[in-house]
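The following block was generated as part of the benchmark described in Methods. Ligand: pyridoxal-5'-phosphate.
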Amino acid sequence: MTALRTRAVHAGREDLTDLGVHAVPLDLSTTYPSRDSADEARRIDEFAAGAVAPGMPVYGRIGNPTVERFEKALAELEGCAEAVAFASGMAAVSACLLSSVAQGKRHVVAVRPVYGCSDHLLGSGLLGTEVTWTTPEDLAAALRPDTGLVFVETPANPTLREVDIAALAETCGDVPLLVDNTFATPVLQRPVRHGARIVLHSATKFLGGHGDVMGGVVACDAEEAGRLRQIRFATGGVLHPLAGYLLLRGLSTLPLRVGAAAATASVLAERLAAHPAVQAVHYPRLGGPLVAFEVDGDPHALIGAVRLVTPAVSLGSVDTLIQHPASISHRIVDAADRHGAGVTDRLIRMSVGLEDVEDLWYDLDQALKAC
Ligand SMILES: *Cc1c(COP(=O)(O)O)cnc(C)c1O
């Protein structure tokens, strides 16, 4: 098995030399002509059952060759058999919940905190699921015969709290464990190695990496992937081919971007911990490009005072992004639940980019003085 950096550049592109092209072909077709409609009928039956039939797809909602390259590459980086791409991270979360419901299991057990909209989707029961919120310690007691999914993020958005995936997977037994790996990326953590069955990404973040493409992806075994493709075909949350192209391009630099940003983030986390205007710093044991910290003063004043850092929600871009979870990314979560999960009103989440560390520190230090 070649190294991750090598696979990040070559996965999903193994046939390019034989095709005689260097850049990945971008296929924007919504439909695919065929003079053999009897064969097409057979292929539609296969696609409808969730299979990946060789050859061209029939229709853009069934599959797309450019998107399939991205899926293949991400599956390889996560060490999974297959991956299924969606229009956004939330479309990917929705498909995973629907997959559980489709198997007659409406109960989901989840560990807070999770991304604000995931929290909202689970808590609202919009897709017919019923959630039990629990802690890793109380997981066993929360499982029921109708539990179809255990849902966890690690490091979690926005507190960066980490859970022991292997311990959780063992408690889950036969119940599939879903790990939202958006924050760690396969560069820092491959959850399947520790017993997770389903790995989810908001591809909008580090996989794309430049703040200009929305997407989601689920890496898993062939059985779950088939079900997710059926759901995607029926509900239509497909990834646009151009997004697939950009995400595949993003993967090639993922290890370098995450490595460089993580090195800068660990320096900033140390300096923030020693800053008089900072009460607490949360930096994962795993490392990574995200730093969360609690300010002594007004968090809004800090956000308003940065000049180099971009005051914006989202994360995983080449530039450093800073936001106030209680106001933005986790606004939709009930305040009591938010506070219970450690998302205090003074918490700031920062996604470190590729700028020079001294330039970033200069900006953060002057902004901290303002708050
Ligand atoms: C952003 C995010 C999502 C949702 O992804 P979208 O692409 O915005 O739909 C899900 N999980 C985590 C951890 C996220 O940060």
